[in-house]
Amino acid sequence: MSATQDKKLTDIVIDDLMIPSEKVAHVQVNNPLEHALLILVKSGYSAVPVVDSSYKLVGTIGKTPILNKVIGLERFEMEQLSAMQVHEAMNTDIPRLSTSDTFMEGLKAVINYPFVCVADEDGYFDGILTRRVILKQFKRDYYTFKSEV
Ligand code: 4BW
Ligand code: 4BW
Question: Residue 11: pLDDT band by 50, 70, 90 thresholds?
Fold first, then answer.
């Protein structure tokens, strides 16, 4: 049974909804950009979290900022990708959630971001909260409790 099966939205916390870190595609801050683009293309995701060597969350990286780094005058200079590292193209100005935050805090966060990273109090990466999961939960709640209003 799902952890949120019988819970109202007001009782749900981010821990109930997040995709755990072991199921999240991610890259490390010192990986070559070429490796990051490979992970993004192979996984099919537009952007993924970035962690350091101790698995602390440091940012996110997407396909568009990587491609922006190698735009030349007339072509993408893809050969440059192996000489650059993830920290040169990642976004460190990101919101973060903790596992004990509420559903509403998660909802607010994913209005402006397709996914938001979850980290513990020491900054270690726990997982991500996606828009899809928030919307699915909202729909489930609507149909489950509709008869009560
Ligand atoms: O591989 C996929 N499987 C499924 N079931 N849906 C997918 C997949 N790839 C994309 N989607 C769908 C989802 O609805 O397209 C949406 C946008 O994908 P994105 O952003 O632009 O790659 C997906 O919406 P979402 O599930 O709400 O996820 C929002 C964003 O969170 C994704 C991606 O950047 C990130 N993400 C989601 N699951 C991830 C992940 N990043 C790393 N690892 C994961 N497991
Ligand atoms: O330039 C941006 N400004 C803002 N404020 N948010 C952005 C920007 N670029 C991306 N985002 C955020 C948004 O939350 O990343 C999400 C995914 O972007 P995407 O898919 O992968 O380029 C954005 O989510 P959204 O606003 O719900 O938009 C979902 C998708 O709809 C975008 C893009 O494919 C399309 N889209 C949105 N506005 C568009 C547009 N396509 C063309 N023109 C627009 N004005």
Answer: very high
The model scores a pTM over 0.85:
yes
Structural domains in the chain, sorted by start: 9-148 (3.10.580.10)
Dist. CA 111 → ligand 2 center (Å):
11
Minimal-distance CA residue to ligand 2 atom 18: 114
Q: Assess contact for 29 and 57: CB atoms under 8 A.
A: no
Q: Which atom of ligand 2 is nearest to the CA of 112?
A: 14
Residue with the two structure tokens 């780094």: 69
Which residue's CA is minimally distant from atom 3 of ligand 2?
A: 112
pLDDT of residue 149: 53
